[in-house]
Specification:
Elements (H helix, E strand, L loop, with lengths): L3 E4 L9 H6 L7 E6 L11 H10 L4 E6 L3 H10 L4 E5 L6 H10 L3 E6 L17 E5 L15 H13 L5 E5 L7 H7 L3 E4 L1 H4 L4 H17 L1
Bound molecules: D-xylitol-5-phosphate and zinc ion.
D-xylitol-5-phosphate binds next to β2, β8 and α7.
């Protein structure tokens, strides 16, 4: 399986977004964090900004909704051209219905679990999703320390996806760097979100390459 790198623009310069988007062209996806001050204690960007990003960038857009009532709002992001929309276990009332609605709009559906949320309850509905996001920090802020106690969850999820012969991707988000990338890749994650490790570096392309090669080596090794 191929490792994909998804820089999070949460750590980009919101006054120079177009420039900062142009600096991550060697990545595979652009990760866009939408927060609402309710589901998480932070507020970021919403529909008007995400809509412009979807229009301007040629990269696939990976919209991560950390908001309440995604059953209501997620389809808006599909409508504006998001490649995939991620919604949280703790916020969604009808995840299967929402995944099917997004698919009917030509958008990929991804289900996210926070560090204290188990992944086993979704084993019977795994095939409904294109990707499962395992948070490796408490959602809300960039620059937090990677939680290595989530690696077992990634491993159990990889085993179950393989057991069911699915092609569901496993995304990890939070504290991913060239140091932690080998750990998540070895555990079975194949889509790596990195905010501060990419945008905190002066050479963003180099940071992306470093995370990718560290992960790829561990995945193969
Ligand atoms: C946190 C966000 C992340 C964040 C990751 O709630 O979902 O996408 O940008 O930032 P780093 O890579 O700095 O932990
Ligand atoms: Zn995120």
């Amino acid at each position: 399986m191929t490792i994909q790198i998804a820089p999070s623009i949460l750590s980009a310069d919101f006054c120079n977004l177009e420039k900062d988007l142009n600096e991550i062209k060697t990545a595979d996806l652009v990760h866009i964090d939408v927060m609402d001050y309710h589901f998480v204690p932070n507020l970021t960007i919403g529909e008007p900004v995400v809509k412009r990003i979807c229009q301007v960038t040629k990269m696939p857009t990976d919209v991560h909704l950390m908001i309440e009532d995604p059953d209501r709002w997620a389809p808006h992001y599909a409508q504006m051209g998001a490649t995939s929309v991620t919604f949280h276990m703790g916020a969604t009332h009808a995840p299967v219905r929402l995944a099917r609605e997004l698919h009917s709009m030509g958008c990929k559906a991804c289900f996210a679990v926070r560090p204290a949320e188990p992944v086993e309850p979704i084993f019977d509905i795994l095939s409904e999703f294109d990707m499962i996001l395992v948070m490796t920090v408490e959602p809300g802020f960039g620059g937090q320390k990677f939680l290595d106690n989530q690696l077992g969850k990634v491993r159990r999820l990889r085993d179950e996806i393989d057991r069911q012969h699915l092609s569901t991707h496993i995304e990890v988000d939070g504290g991913v760097s060239p140091q932690t990338a080998p750990l998540v890749a070895k555990a079975g994650a194949d889509v790596l979100v990195a905010g501060s490790a990419v945008y905190g570096a002066s050479d963003r392309a180099q940071a992306i390459a470093d995370i990718r090669s560290a992960a790829q080596k561990a995945y193969q090794g």
